[in-house]
Amino acid sequence: MSSTANGKNGTWRNWGGNVSARPARQVTPASVEELAAAVRRAAEDGLKVKAVGTGHSFTSIAATDGVLIRPQLLTGIRKIDREAMTVTVEAGTPLKRLNTALAREGLSLTNMGDIMEQTVSGAISTGTHGTGRESASIAAQITGLELVTADGSVLTCSEKENPEIFAAARIGLGALGIVTAITFAVEPVFLLTAREEPMPLDRVLAEFDQLWAENEHFEFYWFPHTGNTNTKRNNRSAGPEQPVGQLAGWFEDEFLSNGVFQVAQWVGRAAPACIPAVAQISSKALSARTYTDIPYKVFTSPRRVRFVEMEYAVPRAALAETLRELKSMVERSGLRVSFPVEVRTAPADDITLSTASGRDSAYIAVHMFRGTPYQAYFTAAERIFTAHEGRPHWGKVHTRDAEYFARVYPRFGEFTALRDRLDPERLFQNDYLRRVLGS
User: Fold this and answer.
1) Which residue from 98, 110, 297 is spatially nearest to 193, judged by alpha carbons?
2) I want to staple 140 with a disulfide (CB 3.0 to 4.6 A). Which of 28, 136, 230, 276 is the partner?
3) φ, ψ for residue 168 (rounded to 5)?
């Protein structure tokens, strides 16, 4: 992706193009020992350290003017344990490589997000998630991890070993150390049947509890300026496999979802006044379809249209009210929003700074086409989300700080105390962490 150092001056940019940094040096370690040595050397030189994945975060969570550690040589599967049903994978492995490697072994993660470009460590460190009634974020599927801490030591963490670090480091924001390997719980590969169909927003909100309860994985997209949604239900299936045909797949996933959508975004950027009309057309362009395939082919989809995103987790019971408020805000504001709003769910988990920590959650994600002004929309949306004690995704645009997080995360103090213990000198600090965790 675009997380390469761009140009001769060694500037790093993220995928969304809204964050850049100029590290003093970049290191690409080929082993955990080399990574630990780079951490010790940075400390001696008085430089801060950050590891960066594919730059899929919209916040400056990975930005540094110190030492930037790039994990692309730390990739691949270390070990598959078929008795324990776990797989241990190097931190720099992209999710798509993990998914295809597991499928070859007849294995799969239980749940995943809809993008698989990220590295496994970048995805878990920011709390990447899909949607699920019982199955939670990628981090909630971790059974063990390996962490290089500020003094260069390598810690192994699990429920049995260093359990208090394990509770926090599964979504560690890069604040506790650098994750070098992750052990995931896996299961034998299974089939999912996806059922996508348009549905009026009023009906989705009225029947939301039922749609959530009846499906293992339910999500929907609402098209602003319309009363239309596209719903998606994924449920386990006995088969047979019925993948999306190549031609239909190209038409729906590439032509409509990426090609026509890209053109619609360009039109909207050039002439915002016609966005509501375009929204009416595009919200009706997708027709119902059903297909059955292995999990990663159903959960994930290509995202070639670049955007900037804000996403908040609100208590699941507050979803309908929050979304109705968002809809009336868009209608009153004169804003022109050309990107659908995505809604997903997660069950409560026990990870200290997980957006679903201790509460059943619904996620509402707002997007704007890259290069269009997003501040007015995001600011108005954020006001609604925070009124419901929303918790922002750590890797997506938000303006919250440590004072706010101490209010909406009951175990926030537990995390900052652990950080004081593991990184007293703040070797892994950057501007973003100073804001969200305090100094």
Assistant:
1) 297
2) 136
3) -100, -35
The span from the CA of 219 to the CA of 344, in Å, is 5
Residue pointed to by tokens 């940019």: 13
Has this prediction a pTM greater than 0.90? yes
Show contacts of 399-407: CB within 8 Å, 24+ apart. Answer: 400/436, 401/435, 401/436, 401/438, 402/435, 402/436, 402/437, 402/438, 405/353, 405/436, 405/437
Look at residues 326, 406, 404 and name the one whose alpha carbon lies nearest to residue 363.
326
SS3 percent helix, strand, coil of the chain, rounded to 5, is 35, 25, 40
- The token duo for 246 is 């190549």
Q: Which residues of 120-145 are buried (b: 16+ CB within 10 A; e: fewer)?
A: bbbbbbbbbbbbbbebbbbbbbbbbb
Supply 358's token pair.
Answer: 């201790």
Distance in angstroms (rounded) separating the CA atoms of residues 274 and 279: 9
Return the H-helix or E-strand segment holding 97.
helix 95-104
Angle between helices 261-270 and 275-285 (to 10 degrees): 170
Cβ-contact 145, 21 below 8 angstroms? no
Q: What Å distances lie between residue 418 and 171, 240, 330, CA to CA?
A: 13, 49, 41
Q: Which two tokens stand for residue 383?
A: 């006001």
d(C-alpha 8, C-alpha 84), whole Å: 47
**Per-residue confidence in pLDDT tens, the chain, 439 aa:** 334 444 346 899 998 888 999 999 999 999 999 999 999 999 999 999 999 999 999 999 999 999 999 999 999 999 999 999 999 999 999 999 999 999 999 999 999 999 889 999 999 999 999 999 999 999 999 999 999 999 999 999 999 999 999 999 999 999 999 999 999 999 999 999 999 999 999 999 999 999 999 999 999 999 999 999 999 999 999 989 998 876 666 666 666 666 667 777 777 777 788 878 777 877 777 778 899 999 999 999 877 788 899 999 999 999 999 999 999 999 999 999 989 999 999 999 999 999 999 999 999 999 998 888 899 999 999 999 999 999 999 999 999 999 999 999 999 999 999 999 999 999 999 999 999 999 8
